[in-house]
Every structure is written in C-alpha cells, then in structure tokens.
Amino acid sequence: MDFGFTEEQLMIQDVARRIAQEKIAPSAEHHDRTGDFPLENMRTLGENGLMGIEVPAEYGGAGMDPISYVLAMVEVAAADAAHSTIMSVNNSLFCNGILKFGTEEQKQLYVRAIAEGREIGAFALTEPQSGSDATAMRCKAAKQADGTFVVNGKKSWITSGPVAKYIVLFAVTDAEKGARGITAFMIDTTREGFHRGKTEPKLGIRASATCEIEFTDYVVRADEVLGQEGEGFKIAMSVLDAGRIGIASQAIGIARAAYEATIEYVKERKAFGQPIGAFQMTQAKIADMKCKLDAATLLTLRAAWQKHQFDNGGARFSNEAAIAKLVASEAAMWITHQALQIHGGMGYSKEMPIERYFRDAKITEIYEGTSEIQRLVIARNETGLR
Ligand code: CAA
C-alpha cells in the first residue's frame, strides 16, 4: 500500500496542470458562453500525449498507466469540464476499446490519429429510444453476401459527434440474439451515408459538441468490424468500465475547482464582523466538502489501480469503476451546490465560475451510465442477483 505517486505520474500531472492553467482556464468562460468547440486546445492536449495517455508509444500515445490518466483528467476538468469530456471520450471510449479489441491495422489507423491529437473520436451507443437499456437499440447493420454490412438507423447524444472523424458504432447484427446480436464497427464520418443532426443546446459542458447522427445505407467493410461479430455489447460494457473512471475523474476536477474557490471566498468574505469561514455552519459545509472530495478521489484511484491490474491479466474492475463514478459524480453535485450556497449571490452570478461548475457537475450523474445504473451494477455485483 503506497499513497504516493511515481515520478512519471507526477510529471504527466504537471504537464496537464500547466496546459490546463495556461491555455484552458483562461478561455473556459468563452467556450461555455459561446459553445465554440475548443479544437486548438484539444490539439495541444494531443501534442502533449494527453489524448492517448494509456496508448503505447508505438500507436502515438504517452504509454502511461490509468492512475496517470486520472491525475491528468482531474487537472483538465478543474480548468474546464467541457475540455475534459472530449478528452475522456478520446482516451477511454475510443482509444481504449480499439487497443483492447482492434486489429493491428485498426490501432495504427484510428488510435494513432486520435492519440496524436490530429482527429477527434466518438462513441455511438445511445439511441433516441435506448439509453440505460442499451440492448434495446434499433440501429441495424445488415450483413451482405460479400462480407460487408449496410448500416441504417439513428444514434443520439453523441459526444463530439459534430466534429469526430472516426466513431465506434454499436449496431444490431442479429435481432434474435439480444445482447449477443450487437456488433461494434469503425465508422469514417467522411463517407457516404453518414449524416449529422443539429448540435444539442445543453445545460453544461457546453463546448463539448453533442449531436444526433444518422446512417442511411452506410457501407462498412469487413475489416472495419471491431472485435468479433456479436461481441459488440461486451465491448461497449467493458469500454464503459474504463470510461466511468474518466467521468469520476472529471467529477473530482469540477468538485476540486469549486472547493478551492470556496476556501478562498470564506476567508475573504465578511459578515457580521468576521470572515464567513469562521461561522460553524460554514465550517461544517467545508468539512463535508473536503471529506466527499477525498473519498471520491481515493475510490477513483482504487478503480484506476484495479484497471491497471486488469490490463495486466487481473480481475475485472466493473464494480470499482461504478462505485467511483457514483460517489464522485454525487460528490461533485453536492460540493458545487454547497459552493454556490456559500457564495450566495456571487455564486449565482455569471461573473464567477461557480454557477458553471454547478451546471457542469450535473452531467456526471447522467452520462456513461446514470447514478441509478451504477447502483444497479454495484448491487448486482454484490448480491449476484439480477
Ligand atoms: N464487461 C464485460 N462484459 C459485460 C459487462 C462488463 N462490464 N457488463 C455486462 N457484460 C456482459 C454480461 O456478462 C453478459 O454476457 P453474456 O451474454 O455472455 O452472459 C452481457 O454483457 C449482457 O449483460 P447483462 O445481461 O448484464 O445486460 P443488461 O441488458 O442487463 O444491461 C446494464 C446491463 C448494466 C443495465 C447496461 O445496459 C448498462 O450499463 N447500461 C447503461 C448504458 C450506458 O452507460 N450508456 C452510456 C452511453 S455512452 C455515453 O454516455 C458516452 C458519452 O457520450 C460521454
């Protein structure tokens, strides 16, 4: 048991913190207000190894471990949650899945482009009628005699959908087989048959572009199948295990930013002749914020540690990832709520970033599995009952 970080882990944390503070934080308010996609900043993150943190150097990544990923994500999320959403989809949902299930050619083509920050990736599982119940998807990929597949259907809430060059798509290849009738495919968005809907107006993470996508007779070649035919649902679930560590890290970053701003504020702001931090009601809030932040951080680092064991032949980390995501996202919502309450009118004003942290925190309880789904995963793992 060692609570310290290695020199390499501290180095990547330092790189992420520097970019986050010098490049991302100064433009966070602009990106939130306008919803402009931060392409230039994403390229900078990619050039510094932060778009493929766990990707081996031979595929253009930084070749680091999951703990490094958590540390870097927290720094970026503390500066701006929207940037960290794009970063997490590229790292966890895109690169991670192809590294684990892709062929050598797929790794060289897709992973390299995203890890080096030249392109943006996306992950298309959700549909208008299928969110938490992912096996209820309707998007179909019909196999042809020549081994190609023809895709028809819609996917919704696709993070980075408006800008992604490549997308990991999940579609039904055998409707009779339920979860075992879903296959994963690599999509090139420049090809015929791929369409984008309007960019969604959102409460938070506004610069992380999200849209519906549609396929009309889009042809996928046999060498663009990811993993085995019928293996898609398992790929989606196992990739989401890693993704949930990313979202937990994002939640910690948002919560930490709100917490640190609050510590400064309670020392400066005076009421009834003393700093508001001297009042016991404020102190109780501060203590509870700190406890929740530390608990979320430790659980997320535990999940990352377990993922590292899994990557090296150890046991699955689904439960640890679900626990980390559940605790961290609910902590972020609670901490940003308290931060806003303590800041009073200033917290409600767009003059300060507190209201942005509050809006950004909410999504962490929704995407990559709602809090209700995390509780379901945890309870199923704990009891063995379904
Ligand atoms: N790893 C590997 N395999 C897994 C797995 C995991 N974590 N979880 C389940 N599986 C396997 C099961 O072992 C089972 O395999 P067999 O058929 O061989 O038995 C198969 O998958 C089906 O599993 P279940 O019967 O448990 O499936 P289910 O229909 O009951 O669903 C669920 C389980 C937990 C509810 C799942 O549907 C789920 O996690 N839903 C939430 C989906 C989600 O997170 N969506 C987020 C959208 S993506 C997003 O938000 C990205 C973004 O834009 C940022």
Automatic annotation (TrEMBL):
Domain of life: Bacteria
Molecular function GO terms recorded: acyl-CoA dehydrogenase activity; flavin adenine dinucleotide binding
Acyl-CoA dehydrogenase/oxidase N-terminal domain mapped to chain residues: 6-117
Span of domain Acyl-CoA oxidase/dehydrogenase middle: 122-217
Entry EC no(s): 1.3.8.11, 3.13.1.4
Ranges annotated as spanning the membrane: none
Reactions the enzyme catalyzes: 3-sulfinopropanoyl-CoA + H2O = propanoyl-CoA + sulfite + H(+)
InterPro entries assigned to the protein according to its UniProt record, in alphabetical order: Acyl-CoA_DH_CS (IPR006089), Acyl-CoA_Oxase/DH_mid-dom (IPR006091), Acyl-CoA_Oxase/DH_mid-dom_sf (IPR046373), AcylCo_DH-like_C (IPR036250), AcylCo_DH/oxidase_C (IPR009075), AcylCoA_DH/ox_N (IPR013786), AcylCoA_DH/ox_N_sf (IPR037069), AcylCoA_DH/oxidase_NM_dom_sf (IPR009100)
Entry-linked Pfam families: Acyl-CoA_dh_1 (PF00441), Acyl-CoA_dh_M (PF02770), Acyl-CoA_dh_N (PF02771)
Domain Acyl-CoA dehydrogenase/oxidase C-terminal residue range list: 230-381
Alphabetic keyword roster: FAD, Flavoprotein, Oxidoreductase
Cofactors that this protein relies on: FAD
Similarity remark: Belongs to the acyl-CoA dehydrogenase family.
Protein name (Swiss-Prot/TrEMBL): 3-sulfinopropanoyl-CoA desulfinase
Organism per entry: Cognatilysobacter bugurensis
Source species taxonomy: Bacteria, Pseudomonadati, Pseudomonadota, Gammaproteobacteria, Lysobacterales
Chain's gene name: acdA
